[in-house]
Amino acid sequence: EIEACGIPWNFAPVLDVGRDPRWPRFWETFGEDVMLVGDMGEAMVRGFQEGPVKGAATLKHYMGYSTPWSGKDRTPAYLPERQLREIFLPPFKQSIDAGAMSVMVNSGEMNGIPTHVNRFVLTDILRGELGFEGLVVTDWAGIDAIPGDYKSDVITSINAGIDLVMVPGSLFGNNHYKTFIQFLKEGVEEGSVPMSRIDDAVRRILSVK
Q1: pLDDT < 50 regions, the chain
Q2: Which of 67, 64, 55, 80 lies closest to 21 in space, CA to CA?
Q3: Which of 79, 104, 155, 187 is 20 to 30 A (C-alpha) from 177?
Q4: Rounded distance, CA 145 to CA 150, Å?
């Protein structure tokens, strides 16, 4: 299907470990077992990227997305770091080690911080500890969904480690009077977003292409 579309990029595998059956996207997971999710995810990554029809895999939703406190989609999760590291992180590490080219971010918030602006998760762990060199993409309108000042969220998300924004020209959510693109440009011009961060994001996007 992606070959027929001419877009060799696939938003899969889903590496969310299914621990809460109330979660409405539970059916998309490989189940509740960490090893099974890791092994199936790695196999899917290798199938996408090494098979006869090649397309970049996208690991999602990084991370902690599948255990929201309320059981509802895109709602806050509260997880001790030990659980994050023992349950939710290993499948991502396994698929990153297998060469996955992109990662999609958890569109909810975790431990009080929206994941799209969480530098600890997106840079310290993903880049620093796991050594991920690929592309980090938002979930659908992920930055738009963050409550608060939109310009601040745009700047903070890019500085936190977001490389590419899904629907960057949209006007969702908080009655935005400017698009992501306009606010990001202002952030660079004002010095709030270093040009080195833009260069890094562009390099990752072009490398995946």
Answers
A1: none
A2: 67
A3: 104
A4: 9
Cα–Cα–Cα angle for 191, 197, 201, rounded to 5 degrees: 140
**Nearest of 45, 63, 62 to residue 9 by alpha carbon:** 45
- What pTM, to 2 d.p., does this model score? 0.94
* Backbone torsions φ then ψ of 103, nearest 5 degrees: -135, 135
Give tens-digit pLDDT for 49-94.
Answer: 998 888 999 999 999 999 999 999 999 999 999 999 999 999 999 9
So what's the pLDDT on residue 172?
Answer: 56
Instruction: List the catalytic residues.
Output: 139
Mind listing the pLDDT tens digit for each residue in 176-188? 678 899 999 999 9
60: which 2 tokens?
């999602």
> What SS3 class is residue 125?
helix
For the chain, give the number of residues.
209
